[in-house]
Fold these 4 entries.
Entry 1:
Amino acid sequence: MKGGLYGLKGKEIGLISIVLMSATIIIWSWEKTPGLTLFLPSQTRVQQSSDILMRRPVVNLLAPEPHVGEVGSSFSKKEATAQKGSEESSSRRSTGDSNTETTSYKEQILSSAQGDQTSKQKDHKKDLVAPIQTPLTSSSLNGNDNKLRNKDTENKACNYAKGKWVLDDNRPLYSGFGCKQWLSGMWACRLTQRTDFAYEKLRWQPKDCKMDEFEKSKFLQRMQNKTLAFVGDSLGRQQFQSLMCMITGGEETPDVEDVGKEFGLILVEGAARPSGWAYRFPSTNTTILYYWSSILCDVEPIDANNRDTDYAMHLDRPPAFLREFIHKFDVLVLNTGHHWNRGKIKANRWVMHVGGVPLTDRKLAVIWAAKNLTINSVVSWVNSQLPKYPGLKAFFRSISPRHFMGGEWNTGGSCNNTTPMSVGKEILDDESADPVVGNAVKGTGVKLLDITGLSQLRDEGHMSRFSITAKPGVQDCLHWCLPGIPDTWNEVLFAQI
Ligand SMILES: *[C@@H]1O[C@H](CO)[C@@H](O)[C@H](O)[C@H]1NC(C)=O
Ligand SMILES: *[C@@H]1O[C@H](CO)[C@@H](O)[C@H](O)[C@H]1NC(C)=O
Ligand SMILES: *[C@@H]1O[C@H](CO)[C@@H](O)[C@H](O)[C@H]1NC(C)=O
Ligand SMILES: *[C@@H]1O[C@H](CO)[C@@H](O)[C@H](O)[C@H]1NC(C)=O
């Protein structure tokens, strides 16, 4: 949307003024909303972070999204130019542009190599004696009354993140040759040169609890007169496409209505595609939508009249789309992660803002700290809205792991494995493998859709070298083949709505 705005001609400046005026009103009323918490920087954040990151095995969580994925997720000229920059600045990264990121990244790899076996054994023992309920740590509640008030008292008897992958001949839930209506060709591995499809035949089996089998009719029945919204980056878009395929079984469904207009999701002049999509199943009046917000914070041009303007990236302000439409949502699934790198931020000409002014605190401007602040801010804001919308079930999806081996996405990294469960088949950890999101939702009414651990076991499920758009030698070990792992994310989601 911002990209389209940016491309408008002189005669439409009147329109721009109206948009800006409404935006001001929205922002103004939003600022009036009680319960908005501005998280102040903690002096000890750097140490805390490395402690948390070292605690458990995490594969490739902090590095940038690869170029190949960007081909499919560029939404405007603005974003398209950003891609070029992303390549440049990613190499800049490796020459020391952001020391902190590089350090934590190395630490993660190290801990992943060493800690795996012992942490699993330890957690397994814990499992036998301790209830699954995770105690609220005082640190996660400090300075946040809001979270205390909405303390999650739900019975957490079932942690769907714990479990194992099992072979299941009834998978996949739709054919990768079908679902052309909803599934982007670039993610349909059946349409590429790939010849191994064992990865399609696995099902996630949670430990100690039954997960309802996904059934189209059951899903639609449960979602009658309801709206489910995915808001996030290209991995969120994969989950959206996966769900559309699951609900339709991959069959042509001409009766599904395009209701993008109701959510302002229209193609703006100059943009490659709209900022999202919304579809309604008329039989049950069920709406499924996706909105592109790669960093889950508000982005506005600093000078709307200047073509070369920078953009304010308001770390402590949720995306305008969310503020405008949250009242229409019954289920909300947020995600962010792979766009948090110096290269993308620079290339997009985003300038970090907190409290409406440019961020000068260098500690906070470090990427992982800015990401943490944003995730905590958006969670806190959604949490503050829950009393107003008692029917709303809000989820934050934990980060989707990357599996680049032997290099980064732009330095020959690959994910060639084709054998399912060669990385592992079981997750027994009580805590999420994504501590940033895991800690942010603790003690709030926002639920964790924890898919990090289970997806980490599936290094064979990525696009790998078969991506249609990939240049030779560039592998996509970030996005997933569909049908594939994001289907499981939706099964786990379905079990909780
Ligand atoms: C992330 O932000 C929250 C809220 O401000 C804070 O409590 C937490 O310590 C931060 N996490 C890290 C790793 O610094
Ligand atoms: C569809 O559901 C919405 C609530 O989500 C409701 O306002 C509307 O009246 C419903 N429409 C029909 C035709 O049932
Ligand atoms: C859905 O909305 C329609 C029209 O408003 C209403 O008749 C129907 O009872 C609603 N169904 C559910 C399950 O809420
Ligand atoms: C993965 O396959 C590519 C292309 O066949 C090859 O260049 C690369 O070296 C392989 N990587 C590993 C780790 O074997």
Note: Residues 2-494 form one domain.
Entry 2:
Amino acid sequence: MRASTGKDGIDRFIVCVTRLCNNKCFFCYSGRERKKDELIPTGEILNFIRLLKRDSVAESRMLIITGGEPTIHPDLPDIVREAKRCGYEAVRIISNGRMLANENLVITLKEAGLDDIVFSLHSHIKEDFEKIAGVEGSYVQSLKGLLNVRKYGIRFSINIVVNRINYKTLSETVRFFISLGVRDIHLFQVQPFGSSWKTDGYPLSPPEEAYAYFQKVFSLPIPEGVHIETNKIPEYYLENFEQYIGEPRKFEDNILGRYPELSAYVSGAEKISCKGPRCKLCYFQDYCNDLEWVMSGRILKRREVPRCIKTPISGKGATLRKNEGFALEAFTDFYMRHRHFVKSLRCKECIYFSKCDGAWIEDVRAGGFKIMKPVVEKK
Ligand code: SF4
Ligand code: SF4
């Protein structure tokens, strides 16, 4: 269970009601932590959401109910009802949608006050969908769930986790869901956590090969009112479409998701359990390397503006070192301001490639990757 306040001033509280799930997605984030029969007792959940609400100072609060699969918690409607009763402005669930094939459950959730549903639907092709979900019959149930939710007028959006099975047909998947009335689509790159790390083979879409498929998605004519966002998608896939690079808040939210473990590491109590060979596949590799650097007592300097960009940016000379009271928040802030740099695929042509860290992500968001001009010959 965790909380974050966005720049929009909304406190978002995330509560996991069970780690159980009726799907077996090969990349599931919590797949490894799942224990048999693990439903969080309803009384415990209700107390927790009341306490969160009481302690929140923001004007607006959203409760996000996740799992596992939250719709298999038999008391989900009661949890939603209580959240609305005690004053959450919005209550959202994140679901694979299969249980919502049961129209009665959709009606009950709507009557309980549910505001919106984020579906996790990873392909429009039945075979791929079921290969990813690991359950025969899941495709029809999930789609029926989505259509039921649309029928009863509950707001909905979808998350698509991009992985080695679906990346080649991603643009068709996006088109298909837009045709079903989805107006908000969030694309994620699978990360090497949970089940995906024990899965045989490479879970991600392979970088060089996948580039063209990502470009195809972002080149789609997007109808008015449709909104596409990315999260943990390597930025070089978004060349020419830099408007899709996630806001810094997204990165900070993702760090918040690993807050207990990372802050335990910063306090010196524990190592990071996932540190190791998987880091090379992980979106947070650069962040974790920097954190490790500071934790070893060394000074972390701001990154230099690349040779191909002449305009200096502020913060020259900024440094960070571990001192008494050193906290993860201070490190994350420093990283975001001075170290969160990205490269373009075109950097590979540049003679400075091996020595250069790329450009600050906010400069790329503002000016596009075209601000980088590979130097091809030594002057
Ligand atoms: S880069 Fe960081 S978060 Fe990612 S696997 Fe390695 S230690 Fe874990
Ligand atoms: S083109 Fe890329 S590698 Fe070359 S200097 Fe610019 S940012 Fe660095």
Note: Residues 277-371 form one domain.
Entry 3:
Amino acid sequence: MSLSPSLFSVGLTFQCPQCNFTVIKNGSWFQVVSHYKCEGCGREIRITYPDKIAIFQKHAYLATPPRGPLRRSPRPSSERGPAARSAAG
Ligand SMILES: [Zn+2]
């Protein structure tokens, strides 16, 4: 079991077990953090590896899959070549 890198740039929410203050950090933050100071109660909150796994699994649906059966509406790609200005005037 590992932490999915696809969530590293996604905002994940974690609730303080002491005061339920919700903190929102990127997955990359959760990956490296081991403890943090809660802004709600000011306590030092430990985040263990199993906690991280749970957090990532909880937000797994936010991960952007590299490929998938889900069809997405194609982006309106505005093709713009190099702006060639005609000096002719
Ligand atoms: Zn707290």
Note: Strands lie at 11-15, 22-26, 35-37, 44-46.
Entry 4:
Amino acid sequence: MNDNASGSIPEVYAAFSDDGGLLAIAGTTTTSNSTTSKSTISKSSLACIALEYFSEGGANVVYSLRPALVEKTIHGLAGARLGTTTESPNLARRLQGKVLRLRKVQEPAQGDAETTPYVPTAEVERYLHEGIEPRLGTDYLVKHDMIKVDPKLIKACNSALATGEEAKVRPKRRKGDRLNENEPHALLLDDMRPEPGVSFMIEFKPKWLSDSPNPQRLKRRRCRTCALRTMRNAEKGKKAGRSPTAGFCPLALTSSGAALEKIIDHFLFANGVQDHPLWKSHGDRVTERLAQDFTSGSTVTLLSRLRELENDLDPHGCLSFEGHQQLQNEGALDDLELAMTLRDCTIFARLTWEPSGPLELRLADLDRKDWRTRLERWCATERALIDGGWYEGAEKNADILRPREICQLWAS
Ligand SMILES: [Zn+2]
């Protein structure tokens, strides 16, 4: 789940050019000297936008875009006054309803967080086109538009993040994370934020929609996601002051009745929907509508498609690739990689408070999970789950931070 700032991280002003979709720095305040370089921007199509910090995850920071006006001549572009996007209809169209995603430097992780090697934006974009779209189609994908970014702009964003840290308005667990100043690209993505008073949004990671194919002979009482969550909670329990992750069982996402109702309630709570002033008057209808969509609407269609792909792409589990076999199975490993990528996606559902309005679904966080750098860790996790008895519910000394069992397999 992404974090949002609790206060205001300084805005960064940028010049946006439709000529190749370049974002270059125009200053960090409306009165500062700008530093855009001469060679990179065409005078003909240039507008100024403010980048407003909006949220961040482990690998990216997301900015919303606001038309702005910087009353300064850009260095090296004498006479080129920056307009706003409203003065540049083409730019306005390209930026309308978009957010900007900039990539973080990924350094070795601390604690129990997973270390992930850096994946450049161009590679993220290529994988979306060549890996994901042919399998999943484009209807449910967040639309993406790759643009070039001036390194000076990323530097300015990093300074603003540091200022936000000093002012204690940036999420604590993201402290020290910085954007990659050597990354030449960024992605413009659909802005899935709800319209205040009209719609709201829930986001969730569906994780493993089928059980792991690995422990074939075990008498399973937990699915892969529930087994891993329970193991991680037990590890956390050994550290003072850590609380267990509640979570949900993904197998229940495509079920019905009380199990599904509990999950919907969990999503509404986790996304703060129940705190909204409209909840009191609209809560029942909203819950009913979601339940309907999860059992016979677009949500269950999407989840079923994801589950089908996971099963087709990973029929034997990562342990079947251990040892010498991996050298001969690159195609199958690419499939496993795609299955693992899909298992880490985020689903955004934006729907109106009034039941007659639309319910829109989009998938995001589909960054490639390169098997070359991850297979060993996937296998180690699988081994730990099997050997520790976490699938069977036969683990030892796991009761320190174990919440109530919620797995569909446990209940059946
Ligand atoms: Zn489960």
Note: The chain has two domains: 12-190, 199-411.
